[in-house]
Design a protein that fits this description.
Strand content: 15-25%
Order of helices and strands: HEHHHEEHEHEEEHEEEHEHHEH
Largest sheet: 7 strands, mixed
Number of helices: 11
Shape: globular
Number of strands: 12
Distance between the termini: 23 Å
Number of domains: 3
Helix content: 25-40%
Radius of gyration: 21 Å
CATH architecture of the largest domain: 2-Layer Sandwich
CATH superfamily of the largest domain: Malate/L-lactate/L-sulpholactate dehydrogenase, NADPH binding domain
CATH topology of the largest domain: Ribosomal Protein S8, Chain: A, domain 1
Amino acid sequence: MSEATVSSDPWAGVSRFAEERLVAFAAAALVASGLGTDEARRAADFLLIADRRGIDSHGVARLPGFVRRLRANLIDPDATLTVDRETPVTVALNANNGLGLLLAPAAMERCIAKAEATGICLATVRQSNHFGIAGAYALMAAERGLGGLAMTNASPLVVPVFGATAMLGTNPLAFAVPTGGRPFVLDMSTSTVAWGKIEIARRAGLPIPRGWGVTDDGEPTTDPAQVKWLLPLGGERATSGQKGYGLGLMVDIFCGLLSGGATSGHVARATDTGRSQGTGHTFLAWRIDAFRDEAEFRTEIDGLIAELRATPAAPGHEGTGVLVPGDPEADAEARNRRDGIPVRPEVLAELHTLASEIDVPFTLDPSGE
């Protein structure tokens, strides 16, 4: 392997771990925080989907936040889903301040089951907490041969266009459908970038592009150290930030207002030690054959994807060619299943501190791999 190839790998030199090893550590931490053994294992499995798909900002790096909120009684480890309203094709659920990693998958399972029976189902969830990555939920439907849509609101981090204070969360949404091969998956936030990109630039001492973030008085900046809030997808008004703002607001209407829960401006941060989060989610699942022949749909979406991949590459992108949404995550998953999941040194240090705090063995020493 050439030196250039090695240096272009963002994970070069980062320790990798078998997924089971990470799941076991996360489950032990959750058991020590009040979850039952089976529940902790399911939650840890779901958490690690993010790391497996290369979205490390939402995987095991989030474990300390979940643990500390559980131990501070800000998440109820024994909460169950209850039904507020239900029709043959809809269900409105209350997570009762339970762990999102447990109750949101159960809500999506209920949505999928109703869609399999009736053709389509829309489900809302209120009074929840952070639920991992949205793409995992859309994939749950696609892996059962259904179409899936998932979204969640989050604590305020994104300014509205022309605003100087955050009023919306990054409010991600995900869409997935089955194909003749691996599912098509779109998993995106409605902000220009995730906050993790700002943190990476800070650590590296590098400037950021204009349009990523603003200072505490709402002024655009290229200095990551000065960023207080993120901009919506599209950035400023001149670059169509109103479109990302509108998408983020749409997610908030679904997940906050329609669910009967809190809108982003009133959702507590994951680091807030004074109150429960109040996060809301919305899920949609539908049978392809409720609209057309499923086999024909799969054939035609395969053809569409093939056409896109055959698009002539722009200069400088001949190496990858044209990708479709979900390609980077699918490629990361294939590598991480083969080589192990990478965990950055700063995350390992945080997990080591966490293990000491809650008195569980630290089983992620890279030298023991």
